[in-house]
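cache lookup: miss for this entity combination. No prior model stored, computing from scratch. Input as submitted by user K.M.:
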Amino acid sequence: MIVAERKSIEEIIEYIKDRDKVLIVGCNECVTVCEAGGKKEVGVLASALRMYFMNQGKEIKIDEVTMERQCDHEYLEEIRNIVDQYQAIVSLACGVGVQFMSEKYFKTQVYPGVNTCFMGVTEERGVWSERCQGCGQCILATTGGICPVSRCAKRLLNGPCGGSSKGMCEIGGEVPCAWQIIIDKLTALGRLDDYEKLAPIKDWSKERAGGPRKVVREDVRQ
Amino acid sequence: MRLRYPDSIRIIRLPCTGKVDVGYLLRAFEKGADGVYVVGCMEGDCRYNRGNLRAKKRVAEARRILDIVGIGGDRVQMFNLSSAEGPKFAQIAVDMTEKIKAMGPNPLKLKKMKKAA
């Protein structure tokens, strides 16, 4: 899933303080799972903002809605009939949702309500960590299913650097060395020979270095 | 045990304090409550293992938010006691009422009254 963190209430107050009518829009997908932008978080943020502005003596109408997804036309269409009533939208979806909303409702200001962080997993409730950087050319087949692109600080493709110590990365913060995990996994699989194979130079043009990316599938395209 | 406690308190029963949500606490203040306190079982004694510990964190989060929005986080508090501690329950009700009275009414209530006048 895409993992995001809530923005501070103070930052959102700054965005909307000069508006009269604001819609807070949540998303039922990834940001609900990482507890940053689902229906609950929309309720808490809207309630906090209403109380703040009421306490300041400002009359700002703040409404709430949470949609199934903000990265698909069909769900974003749900607010078409009401969007003109609002001077601004605070989207608690990831950056994808915020942008799609902004593109779709071109005359409406859309503010982000979360900081979008990475693609990752729920290690335990309240702890999320990165697993994928969307490099566009997956090499997990040769690395025991553990990704050195997203989990090695240096994104090394052929074994660990000298900073790997007792299974941990030299950058600190209790970050495990990705290559230590890869070697452990390949050992468990009995495929340590794969570790000896040199990985070819990676085509980084399929990553962000090649500019904004697009996937087109003619077989399913309308 | 005919104990008396202030009649300004409205009790909202929940199956476990683990059902308490930050949104519930905030909504109470939005609707004009002067203070809210959560009474849960003793720590380590939750029938559902961690319900009261979850509530503790949510109360802390509600306090943080109420401080930011200017209502005052001290208006929310959590207490832990067993169901056999009736006198303590009544005493907490008295103490909390006095504390909130000293803090004064919810500022939003005053704003709403001014607006209506």
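stored under new cache key. The mean pLDDT of chain A is 96.
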